[in-house]
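In response to reviewer comment 3 from the previous cycle, which asked for concrete evidence that the modeling workflow produces usable outputs, we include below a single protein chain processed end to end. The sequence was submitted unchanged, and the resulting C-alpha cells are shown without manual editing.
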Amino acid sequence: MKKVYVLDTNVLLQDPNAIFAFEDNEVIIPAIVLEEIDSKKRNADELGRNARQISRMLDSLRNEGRLFEGIELPSGGMLKVELNHRSFAKLQEVFADVTNDNRILAVALNYHLEEKDNDTPRPVILVSKDVLVRIKADVLGITAQDYLTDRVVNMPDEIYSGHLTIRVHPAIIDEFYSYRFLGVQSLNLNYPLHPHEFVILRDEMGTSKSALLKVNAEGKKLEPLYLSNDPIWGIAARNAQQRMALELLLNDDIPLVTLTGKAGTGKTLLTLAAGLMKVEDERKYKKLLIARPVVPMGKDIGFLPGEKEEKLRPWMQPIYDNLEFLFDTKKPGDIDKILAGLGSIQVEALTYIRGRSIPGQFIIIDEAQNLSKHEIKTIVSRVGEGSKIVLLGDPEQIDHPYLDASSNGLTYVVERFKEQSISGHIMLERGERSHLAQLAADLL
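The workflow returned the following C-alpha cells.
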C-alpha cells in the first residue's frame, strides 16, 4: 500500500536528496517548510549549503509541472508542496501556539483525518529529525518516524571497531609464534576480516596464552605488529588498543587513519606524539597541521576580540593542552614560543583548510564527529600527495544539531573505508586520562 510522507524542514536540511528516498509513495512538503528553508539559505555553513541545494532542486522540478498540484518523481512517487491542508482548527484543541513545528503537524493531522474518511485510507507518516515533533505527532495519533536513510549503520554499537578477539585452539597460537604469520583461512571464520584489522587470539582452553596480530593490506594474512612498545615523545601505549593505534599512526603506507573512543582514551595525545615523531624526528612530512571544527558545546560565546590566533585560542585550547604536556612546558606562554620557533606545527580552525590542497603533511582533524558527510568528504579530498590524515572523535559526543552517532561524517568514513588497504581504524575503549575520567565516561 502506498503511503503519504510529510517532511519536516530538518530532514531536507540534513539531506537535500531526501525527497527521492521514499520510493513510489507521495511526499508532502508543507508550505511553511519552504519559508524555513528560505531563512537558512544565506547561512555560510552546511545548513546554508543544503538550503540552497534543495531550493535549486525544487526549482528544477518545476519544469515537470506545478509543485502545488504534484509532480511525478523518478522513483514513481509524487512530490507536492502542500497549500490546502493548513487549517489549524483541529490542532488548536491540543497545541494552541501557532509555531512552525505546529503548522507542519497541522498539515500531517489534516492529511491523516482526510485519509481516514477514504474507502482505502493511506497511512500518513510524519518524518522528522526532531524528537519532540515526533512525540507531539504521537499525541495526535499520527505515525511519526526519524529519517534513517542517511544513517551509515542502524545502531551505534554496530560501528566497525577495527579489532576483535577470537578464541582458538592453543596449537594455532603456537603456529603463529613458530612461523610469524597465519593465513586468514586457518581461523575458519564465517565472516571476513578487513585490511589492517587487529586480531587478539586467546586460548579457548582458558590459559593465559595469547597473541596480537594484524591483517595485512591484502586481507589474506595475519602478521605480527612491527613496532615495539618503546615510548614516542615520552608516550607509551598503556593498553592493547593504544598499541594498535600507534601501529597505524606510524605506518607511512596507511595515509588515512581514524580513531574513535570516549573522552580520555588517548586519541589526541597519541596522534600528536606520532605526528611530532614523523615531522620533527624522522622528517617524513614537511608540517604537522592540526585542525578542529568550531562547534561549541552549550551556548556559543559569540564574537571574540583580537587577531585570528586570539579568536581561535579558546577553540584550540585542548590541542595546546596536549602539546604543553608533550613538550613538558613549565610556564604559561612557553608553548607559543616553542611553536613559533619550530615553524613546522600549525594549529588551525577547520574553516581555514577547506579549499586547500595539502601535500606532504601530517594532518590531524580533531572532533571529526561534528562534521557532516559532505564536510568530511571535502576535507579528506583535500589531502595531497605524500600526506597522511588522521580523523579523531567520539561519535557519542556530538554537538551538531542534525547529526548523531550513526549519521556523522566520522562514522561515515570508518564504515566506507574499512575494506580499503590504504586506511586503518581503531576504537579505543579504555580511558587512561585518570581513574576519575574513566568513571565519568562510564557512569555519566
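The chain has two domains: 4-145, 236-443. We consider this sufficient to address the reviewer's concern, and the full set will be provided in the supplementary archive.
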